[in-house]
């Protein structure tokens, strides 16, 4: 009876965990949208109050304010994406990047974040960006994304900077520096790697090269 009870509890945990992770991610994103959109939603409510008292009264409800905040931010992101993909939008973004580059402290933070996003979005011209590295201890491996490579002037060897995202939030992680010869290239896309990480390894492509090809200097993305 105790063994059956334990199995049922474990089965219940396995059912709850993916639901909990999904709810946690959605709640995190929703709260983030609400935080950004609330000031604008309150301002809109104040503007419509004189002409529409009923709508203004409805706007006092917390759920309505949260819904309005999320809607405003999503619409804003949609419009921003449409404009950003247009020619004039790309030029405006370049001007904005140049402006950010002129502010010392902001340039360091904004430039690093912008570079990381571009690295993840851009498909490498050659080689594979998704790799396996020994982390956090020898004998254990983690999926990482090669963000760039360096040349060690003392030895002439290629050194790779690898970003190792964490589960279930890939926006946080670790940056590891190691010889490119120690990388195990994976024939995965960046989207497949992120899905693997977010799902805790449950969703993954069929192929998995644990040891990798025999090579002293694997080709990776620069």
Topology:
Blueprint: H1 2-48, H2 53-58, H3 62-85, H4 87-101, H5 104-121, E1 130-134, E2 141-151, E3 158-165, E4 173-179, E5 184-185, H6 190-198
Proportion of β residues?
A: 5-15%
Largest sheet: 5 strands, antiparallel
Number of helices, where a helix is a run of at least 4 consecutive DSSP H or I residues? 6
Order of helices and strands: HHHHHEEEEEH
The level of helicity is: 40-55%
Runs in which pLDDT lies below 50 for 5 or more consecutive residues are 214-218
- CATH architecture assignment of the largest domain: Roll
The neighbouring-strand order within the major sheet is 4-3-2-1-5
Report what the structure shows.
The protein has a 5-stranded antiparallel β-sheet, with helices on one face. Helix content is 54%, strand content 15%. The protein has 3 domains: 81 residues, no CATH class; 36 residues; 99 residues, SH3 type barrels (Roll). The protein is an alpha+beta fold. The chain is built from 6 helices and 5 strands, in the order αααααβββββα.
């Amino acid at each position: 009876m105790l063994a059956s009870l334990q199995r049922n509890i474990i089965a219940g945990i396995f059912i709850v965990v993916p639901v909990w992770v999904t709810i946690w991610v959605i709640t995190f994103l929703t709260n983030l949208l609400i935080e950004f959109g609330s000031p604008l939603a309150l301002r809109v409510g104040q503007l419509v109050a004189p002409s529409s008292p009923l709508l203004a009264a409805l706007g006092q409800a917390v759920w309505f304010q949260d819904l309005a905040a999320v809607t405003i931010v999503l619409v804003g992101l949609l419009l921003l994406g449409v404009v950003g993909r247009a020619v004039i939008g790309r030029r405006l973004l370049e001007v904005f990047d140049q402006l950010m580059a002129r502010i010392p402290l902001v340039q360091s933070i904004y430039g690093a974040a912008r570079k990381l996003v571009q690295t993840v979005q851009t498909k490498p011209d050659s080689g594979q960006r998704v790799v396996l590295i020994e982390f956090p201890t020898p004998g254990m491996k983690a999926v990482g994304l090669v963000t760039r490579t360096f040349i060690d002037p003392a030895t002439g060897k290629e050194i790779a900077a690898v970003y190792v995202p964490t589960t279930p939030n890939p926006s946080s992680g670790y940056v590891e520096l190691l010889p490119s010869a120690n990388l195990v290239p994976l024939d995965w896309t960046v989207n497949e790697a992120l899905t693997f990480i977010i799902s805790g390894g449950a969703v993954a492509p069929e192929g998995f090269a644990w040891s990798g090809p025999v090579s002293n200097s694997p080709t990776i993305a620069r």
